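I am still getting used to backbone structure tokens and would like to learn alongside you. To get us started, please write out a protein record for me. Once you have written the record down, we can walk along the chain together.
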Amino acid sequence: MAIAAVATMAAMLTADCAWAANGAYAVDAADISEPGACKLESWVSTATNTDFSMVANPSCVVDVGRPVEFSVLNNRFRSDGEWNTTFQPKAKTNLVPTGIGKLGLSIYAGGSFDSLTGDNLTAFAVVPATYRLSETMRINFNGGWLWDRTVDRHYLLYGIGWDWKFTEVLQLTVEAFGQAGQADSPGVTRPRFQTGVRYRPNEIFSVDVILGHNITGENASWITIGTTIRFPPPESRPARERTGHL
């Protein structure tokens, strides 16, 4: 019974990694960086039930006939007092560019694996859409599919997020997301929420402070501290100069 409980919690955590799309935020935007750009996202999360997670997510954009962002998320976590490590390769490409007053679309897909056994735990595909209200405000919509191979169940993924850059260096994000389908625990399909502030003093570095609830389906409250370090292509212009928006 104990092994089954740990396996169930591990599945919930690895399934949730499909949401790690915009740093520690869950709901992704439709944009990707220009070819040659790389970044390293990392964050630490702790919950009121003593669950814990440490994540490193390096990524780079490569031109393979079209720009594709490749990433490998590594998650070292504790659930119910047990430690485990998973990794999640993912590829994302933009289909319709974003712009003020227009809807942009992209798609990403990947899976998660147990680092010790190499077992494929999940597979997923998500379509992020972004509608920009202004240069400083956007709404993101996510819809997709998740296959939890540990219990052989399929889920519908959904999410909506709102980003507002309210000063030159501060951005507020509010988001709700989740997965719909059959589950043994009600927390697995109960909606999940996060809100946080990003401090970005320049184009290279940013830090996030995020508060969330039910993030991995365990009905606990979470606090997350995350950082992003960006490595733009040589001689490229800053992102805000290229696009004119956040």
Q: What stands out?
A: Residues 141 and 160 are 5 Å apart (CA to CA). Residues 1-15 have pLDDT under 50 and may be disordered.
